[in-house]
Amino acid sequence: MKQVHVKLFTMHIEDTIAAISTPVGHSGIGIVRLSGKNAVKIADGIFRSKGGTKLKHTPSHRIIFGRIVDPANKETVDEVLVSIMTAPNTYTREDVIEINCHGGAISLQTVLELVLKKGARLANPGEFTQRAFLNGRIDLAQAEATLDIINSLTKQSRKAAVEQLRGKLSAKMEAIREKLTELAAFVETYIDFPEEDIETPSLTDMKKRALGIHQSLRKLIDSSRYGMILRDGLKTTIIGRPNVGKSSLLNALLEHDRAIVTEAPGTTRDVIEEYLNIRGLPVRIMDTAGIRNVKDIAEKEGIKRSIRAMKEADLVLVILDGSRALHDTDMELIKKSNSKNTILVINKADLEQKLTIPESIFTRPTKGKNKRGREDVNKITVKISAAKGTGLDKLKDKIVETALTGQTGGGSSIITNTRHVHALEKALLSVDSFITGVMNKISPEFLSVELREALDAIGEILGITTPEDILDRIFSNFCIGK
Fold it and tell me: pLDDT tens for residues 150-192?
């Protein structure tokens, strides 16, 4: 058990917790889960097996058929299968009972109420996983991966979460901590025995070791762009003038009519958001109001939201009407998307083409010391017909390609969590300060402080040095019953 959290843990170690662990609604089965030292005793108080066997006399990891009976009136509540799992080989490393009922809400709620009357306490959100963490079965990164698996949007995002749950990221963090600890020990040797003839690494060697740690941290941080996309989806905004085919494109990608499509401009008044699975990549796609000068208050507000959605997007799809000449508003939107990854989608490719795109769109001015030049802008052009469904496969390929641009990855470890990114950046800053200190030959005491801060930052990811308020915030994001 991690000593830093002993106080937090002992506040509720004596409680046996219970909750419904399956979603609300009708289903084939529903599960009431218990965890704690009295889990078996509480279940025995309401469970009657066909042969009269008590759960306390049943070997661990067995399933027994029987009935849940209300002790107050001897009425049978439901026929159930009870799973018994005794500590320490359980999810929480406590005794765990799972009562598998029929999936009706009334049956589940009644069983839960009986369990609570027998002495269990209703579990807080994420408390089962919190106990698994506090009992040392998993670390904090693995606990967060549990939630990521539940919330995964595609097979790829699920795969990344499973790798983290299996401890791939934790192993990487532990390796970095070990290297930092070794380096800190060398520095402490300089501090404690400055006059002794003890073999210690040279400043050059310490700098080399720190640079290796820097590289490992940087690689993980660089993987976070793709990792965050896998977890939350690639924020993609469809933007353009009215009637260029924005809503038609959304409907074509979704393969059903989600947005209203009419010939009247201004039909879309608000941002319409949907999730897509494109080649295993989760895409959070937003259709927006057409950009034009208007007096209508509602449409004007919709246009404001369109611009805001474009600014917040990871990828912008600027839709152009290939059957018309380039409009000033088209040029304005392209310029506004200059700082973003942008795909210029030329729609209505099935009609006679009148659109010409100037080369200057794909470059922007740059200033040098003595000269002015131009640099390439990350803009791609794709021709489609949303109405006919042509060109959509190529557009999907380009969306995935854009998402992967610059993705160096972290090997088998991909950072998918904003909290982890912030902790890694803190560690990197401290390591960089250490390297600068070594080069400037500053006092070893100051170098030691930088390494301790880097160690604390890595410890936050694993849950070794994580403040209690952050722990509470993390587990409060879980559903009750997990």
Answer: 888 888 888 989 999 999 999 999 999 999 999 998 888 766 6
Write the DSSP assignment of 433-459 as a string of letters.
Answer: HHHHHHHTT--HHHHHHHHHHHHHHHH
**Residues 431-451, mean pLDDT to the nearest whole number:** 90
- Three-class DSSP category at 39: helix
Residue 1's pLDDT is what? 38
Residue 369 has phi, psi (to 5 degrees) of -65, -45
Q: How far apart are CA 45 and CA 39, in angstroms?
A: 10
3-class secondary-structure state, position 78? strand
CA torsion sign for 88, 91, 96, 99 is negative
Interior angle at CA 424, CA 422 and CA 429, nearest 5: 95
- Cα 164 from Cα 416, distance rounded (Å): 9
Q: What share of the chain is helix, strand, coil (3-state, %, to 5)?
A: 45, 20, 35
Q: What is the pLDDT of residues 284-297, one digit of tens each?
A: 888 776 554 544 54
Residue 468 in domain:
no
- The domain of 47 spans 3-138
Query: pTM for the full model?
Result: 0.79
Whether residues 252 and 400 share a domain: the answer is yes
In 3-state terms, what secondary structure has residue 17? strand
132 lies in a domain? yes
